[in-house]
Amino acid sequence: MRPPPMPPNPKTSILSAALGGLLAALAVVVIAPSGATTTRTVAASTPVAANALASAQQTHQTLAHIIYERAAPSVVAISATGSSDAFGQAQSDSGSGIVVSAKGLIVTNDHVVDGADRITVQFGGSGGPTRPARVVGVDASNDLALLSVKPAGLRLAPLRFADATSLHVGDQAFAIGNPFLYDQTLTVGVISALNRAITAPNGATITGVIQTDAALNPGNSGGPLLNAAGEVIGINSQIATGGGDAFAGGGANSGVGFAVPSSIVVSDLASLDHGAARATLR
Questions:
Q1: Residue 164: what pLDDT?
Q2: Would residue 183 show up in a list of annotated catalytic residues for this protein?
Q3: Is 65 a catalytic residue?
Q4: Topology (CATH level 3) of domain 75-157
Q5: Which residues contact 225 (CB under 8 A, 6 or more apart)?
Q6: C-alpha to C-alpha distances, 218 to 46, 125, 172, 173, 244, nearest whole angstrom
Q7: Which of 114, 139, 143, 213 is catalytic?
Q8: What does the pLDDT look like over 12-69, one tens digit per residue?
Q9: Active site residue: 96, 111, 192, 262, which one?
Q10: pLDDT category, 140, cuts 50, 70, 90?
Q11: How far is residue 46 CA from its own chain's centroid?
């Protein structure tokens, strides 16, 4: 005689029902290159679910790639050399910058070029053309400087600026720069906090600052922090470290970086270049 069937375990039945409901449908949020999001519901218990999840991941990667392809050509590497120290060694610094005018105007951090006797800008990454640059305007209290190069022979495409006041914590953030001289490096993160305050090298307080966990390191200074539309929302300026220089010298990424907001940058451009860059907030 067969033993009577075991009565169903109520806890097992409840768990099975819950899992069944979970597998019945899965909401997948897809981020389009435009930054818009759409939600699709798919059956998770079929191969369609795996394909949808893979598609969502692929879409995210494509977004970062598209932003990089569009913005990287307008991000430059800056080398600044100053007077020699007591040991006869020339003082040098490196950083990043953003093309803001087809006429050869580039915005960067003031601390990247402050005190430099010679400034060189390289376009298009390693092996790209280089040009000598001169400082045409400085706002030391916001750690910003405007450079000028002769644009002959260069194809310069200014980046657009977005209004940073429309940002939210959790929004995607993309940084492009030259950390540790690794040219045109892309890092991806989110907006970690808004309206932070940081101290400029001259001791002034910069307000409305954007905090991000996109990896920033020495050499990223002066490069752009971008939104999901590939627009500039800030100029990467400082990192929080356990020690060392937060600006461009010592220290390394700890997941806490700061960018001067686009509103300050655009306001400065209007005064520093007499409107030549024509940067506006979108």
A1: 87
A2: no
A3: no
A4: Thrombin, subunit H (2.40.10)
A5: 173, 174, 175, 210, 212, 214, 232, 233, 234, 235, 236, 259
A6: 47, 17, 22, 18, 11
A7: 143
A8: 443 343 334 433 333 333 333 344 433 333 333 445 545 544 555 555 558 899 999 9
A9: 111
A10: very high
A11: 38
111 is catalytic: yes
Tokens of 121: 């800008």
Q: List, for residues 56-83, the tens digit of each pLDDT value.
A: 555 555 889 999 999 999 999 999 998 7
Tokens coding 108 = 């960067």
The answer to whether 279 and 158 are in contact (CB under 8 A) is yes
The Cα 170–Cα 168 span in angstroms is 6
Q: What is the pLDDT of residues 102-136, one digit of tens each?
A: 999 999 999 999 999 999 999 999 889 999 999 99
Domain boundaries, the chain: 26-71, 75-157, 159-270
Distance (Å) of CA 265 to CA 115, 160, 218: 21, 12, 20
Which residue out of 79, 101, 148, 221 is catalytically annotated?
221
User: Is the pLDDT at 270 greater than 70, yes or no?
Assistant: yes
Q: Topology of 159-270 in CATH?
A: Thrombin, subunit H (2.40.10)
Whether the domain at 75-157 and the domain at 159-270 fall into the same CATH topology: yes
Find all residues with CB under 8 Å of 48, minimum gap 6, and list them. Answer: 42
The conformation of residue 216, written as its DSSP 8-state character, comes to -
Please tell me what DSSP assigns to residue 231. Answer: -
Alpha-carbon gap, residue 5 to 258, rounded angstroms? 65
**pLDDT of 3 strictly over 90:** no
